[in-house]
Amino acid sequence: MAKKLAGKMKLQIAAGKANPSPPVGPALGQRGINIMEFCKAFNAKTQEMEPGAPCPTVITYYQDKSFTMDIKTPPASYYLKKAAGLKPVGKRNRPRGAEAPGRETIASVTVKQVREIAEAKMKDLSANDVEAAMKIIVGSANSMGIEVKG
């Protein structure tokens, strides 16, 4: 018999760094999900990824307190900032994009780097081939003030 769906939730958690402290613990606890079981499963699934890479995760939880998780690849902006070599700034110590994208260029990436990012993100993008995925990544780069050099 199929499990009875209780709901879905989305979290963005650093790869290999899920722990019961906020924001993960309270978000799972109020929905009745076993926090330690989730943390162990998430960290085991993300151990091959780069530690600390933000992973959007869709958690489907059921009335019998069980859950499934779909871990997606890190956002394109994360890969673009890393490829451009942007240094962390600001309160949260994260790299930022341009203040005025379109008028200001803060960094540049090569077409080869864009292709690598598109290939890494291919399973999560709504593109039929790598060329279409590259266009999506170039659009993200432009909106961040990162120039793509051919």
Automatic annotation (TrEMBL):
Residues 72-148 form the Large ribosomal subunit protein uL11 C-terminal domain. GO terms for biological process: translation. It comes from the Bacteria. GO terms for molecular function: large ribosomal subunit rRNA binding; structural constituent of ribosome. It holds the Pfam family Ribosomal_L11. The keyword Coiled coil does not apply. Keywords: Methylation, Ribonucleoprotein, Ribosomal protein, RNA-binding, rRNA-binding. One or more lysine residues are methylated. GO terms for cellular component: cytosolic large ribosomal subunit. InterPro entries: Ribosomal_uL11 (IPR000911), Ribosomal_uL11_bac-typ (IPR006519), Ribosomal_uL11_C (IPR020783), Ribosomal_uL11_C_sf (IPR036769), Ribosomal_uL11_CS (IPR020785), Ribosomal_uL11_N (IPR020784), Ribosomal_uL11_N_sf (IPR036796). The keyword RNA-binding applies. Residues 9-67 form the Large ribosomal subunit protein uL11 N-terminal domain. SMART domains: RL11. SUPFAM superfamilies: Ribosomal L11/L12e N-terminal domain (SSF54747), Ribosomal protein L11, C-terminal domain (SSF46906). Part of the ribosomal stalk of the 50S ribosomal subunit. Interacts with L10 and the large rRNA to form the base of the stalk. L10 forms an elongated spine to which L12 dimers bind in a sequential fashion forming a multimeric L10(L12)X complex. Belongs to the universal ribosomal protein uL11 family. Forms part of the ribosomal stalk which helps the ribosome interact with GTP-bound translation factors. This is Large ribosomal subunit protein uL11. It comes from Sagittula marina.
